[in-house]
Write a structure and sequence with these properties.
The protein is of the alpha+beta class and 90 residues long. It has a single domain, classed as 2-Layer Sandwich (Alpha-Beta Plaits). Helix content is 27%, strand content 40%. The protein is built from two helices and five strands, in the order βαββαββ. The protein has a five-stranded mixed sheet with strand order 4-1-3-2-5, with helices on one face. The chain starts with a strand and ends with a strand. The mean pLDDT is 95.
């Protein structure tokens, strides 16, 4: 298992990025949370198997078709096992 804290910048709010991230994470067997930040970025914490994590980070770089992703910052860490699903946080 791996854990990543992810910050996505660009035109990512209001284009379905959070919802699409939840769908993608679920398909890859990942758990965690996603939220919009006050400065119009998307922040996520995800945990899951290594292959799924790398695939998810690659998806984050593309995002849904309406998004324009400028940058994806990833901080890798040790999983905590605190999540049972993938949620939206406000």
């Amino acid at each position: 298992m791996r854990r990543a804290e992810v910050l996505v910048t660009g035109r990512v709010q209001g284009v379905g990025y959070r919802y699409s991230a939840i769908i993608q994470a679920g398909q890859l067997g990942l758990v965690g949370w996603v939220r919009n930040t006050r400065d119009s970025h998307v922040e996520m914490v995800v945990e899951g198997p290594p292959g799924g994590m790398e695939a998810f980070i690659e998806w984050c770089r593309r995002g849904p078709s309406a998004a324009r992703v400028d940058d994806v910052r990833v901080a890798w860490g040790e999983p905590t096992g605190e999540f049972t699903g993938f949620d939206v946080r406000y």
